[in-house]
Amino acid sequence: MLTLVIGNKNLSSWSLRPWLVVRHLGLPFAEVKLMLDTPEFKPAALRYSPSGRVPVLVDDGFAVWDSLAIAEYLNEKSGGRGWPANDQARAHARAISAEMHSGFAALRQTWPMDITARREVPLTPAAAGDVARVDGLWQECRARHGERGPWLFGDYSIADAMYAPVVLRFNTYQANVSPVARAYIEQTLADPHLRAWMQQAREEVGAA
After folding, report:
1. Boundaries of domain holding 19
2. Summary mean pLDDT of the chain
3. Which pTM value belongs to this model?
């Protein structure tokens, strides 16, 4: 049985990504939630992973940490269903996922994920550049693969999970984006798995 160790659902963007992957792949798993920014967090996280961070996937005592590494492990567990079947589309999906994983620091800093909030926070020039880059990526993916389905590469893939926290950021801070990006935001916000996460985030905040 897989166990996915995550942080707060309202704030932990990195936890959201593998959670969406495992849900979309339909793999059974147990969920363990550790509250970030508490004295108990680090000792509890170290029980699951030497990194002392979340997310962590535990499979029969074997720990995989880092959201993209977890997504790749889940892809292998599912027989490769996490990425597009076409080799070039698969490489493209991996490239934009890696770009999301390692980049967009200004966007993350200026617009941190806070699902239950609605705010107006001006973008710095660097963050505005990040928003424009994301918008352009989404437009390119939809132009190439739109005929195959409503997601970035037609069918849902790890790339969609990697960009889901950005969708939530754009929703929270009311980003000004292209019509194509706006349609993709609405598609993502309608995802029943993401909606379940968002509902649990609201319950989490209400109980705090």
Report:
1. 2-80
2. 96
3. 0.96
